[in-house]
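Late entry, written up from scratch paper. The run itself happened at the end of the previous shift, but nothing got recorded in the book at the time, so transcribing now.
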Amino acid sequence: MFRYRIAGALLVALALASPAPVARACFLGGLEVPPIDAERAGPDSFILYGSVKDSQKTETGGTTTFAVEKVLKARPAVAGKKTVVIDRHIPIPDAKNPPRFVLIGIATKDTIDVYRGIPDAPGLVDYIDGLLKIDTKDRAKVLRYTFDFLHSATDEIATDALAVFDRATPDEVRTVGPTLDAEKLRKWIGTGNLSYARTQHYCVLLGHCGKPGDAALLRKVLDAPDQRNHGAPLIGYVLVDPKGGHAHLTKFIADPKIAFRPRYGGLVALRYFYDHRPDVLSQKDAVAGMVALMAHADIADMSMDDLRKRKVWSATDAVLRCATLKGHNELPINRRAMIKFALAASQADPTNAAAVAFVAKARKDEPDRVKLLEEILKDEAASEPRPK
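Output as recorded:
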C-alpha cells in the first residue's frame, strides 16, 4: 500500500476542516499559490476528489484515509484506487458529513506525493472538469473559459480564475482580450470595490475589448483617492483611447506634485507599451516618457535603468544631464544608475563620446564604485537569457 506524503499547506487545510470556517488557499495578498490550470499541466500530476473516510490518531501522529469519489485527472499510479492514505491524523467533526477536498499531487512509478488540498465548495468540481477539457496549451481558450468565473460566488473558483490571468503573458491577453465581455468588465470595475490584483487585470482587459468611451471609467479608477494601482488604469486608458490616453499619461508623469507610487504607475505603463504594444504607443514616445520621468529625483534611477536595459543609447545626453540637476547627483542610487548607464553605453558604442568621457571622469573620481558597478554589469549580462 502506498503511503502518501503531503506538504504543509495541505496539512493545514485538512487539519482545519471543521464546522468553523475553513482556511482557504489564496492567490492574492502575497501568497503564490498556482492556479489549478498550471498544476494540472505537469506530466505526472493527478487531481482527485474525495472525502475523509477514516482517521486514526496515534502517539506519533496518525493516519487518514480519503475515499476517492472522482478522478479528475488520472495517472497510472492512482488509477482505479478507491482510497488514499495520508500519514497524518485529520479530525472528522461530523461522521455523517465528512470533510471533502480536491486533492492535487504528483505520481511517478515509485512515489505518490499529495501536496495540495482545496476544500470542496459549490461548483468547484464542475469548474475543474470544464477546465480539464481544454488543452492547457491553448491559452486563449483557457483564458476565455476562466474569464466567466472571475466573479464566481464561490471564492475558491473566483481566486483560481484570477490566478490564471495573473500568469498570462501580455501576448496571451492581447489575443483573447478582444473576445471578452466588455460590459461585464465595466460592471465589475464600476463597483469600485476591487482588490489590487483585480483592478490591475480588469483595467488592462477592458483596454483590450473596450471602446474610447471607456476612458471616462478608467480615469475614474485612476483618480480615486485611495487608488494604489495606477499602472493598470493608465495602460487601459491608452489602449482604448491612444491619443487622449497618451496626452494624459504625458501630463501625469510630468506633474511634480504627484507622489512616488502613482508616478511609478506611469513608468509601468511606459514599460508595457515599449515592450509589448509599440503599435499603440510608439517606442519613441515611451522613451520620451521615461526621459521625462528622470526630472523627478525619486524615480530617475529607475528610468535610467529601464533605458539601459533596453539599450536606448540615444538617451545618453538626457541621462548624463541628470548629474547637473540639484537633488539628483547627490542621491547615491541615482549616481549609480548614471554610471551604469554610461558604462554600458560606452561598451556598446566606443564612439559615444559623452558616455566615454563620463566614465573616464567617474573612474578617476570614484575608482572603487566604478569597479564594483562594472562587476555588477558583468553579472547582470551573464544572467540574461540567451536568444534561442
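Residues 1-31 have pLDDT under 50 and may be disordered.
(Scratch paper discarded after transcription.)
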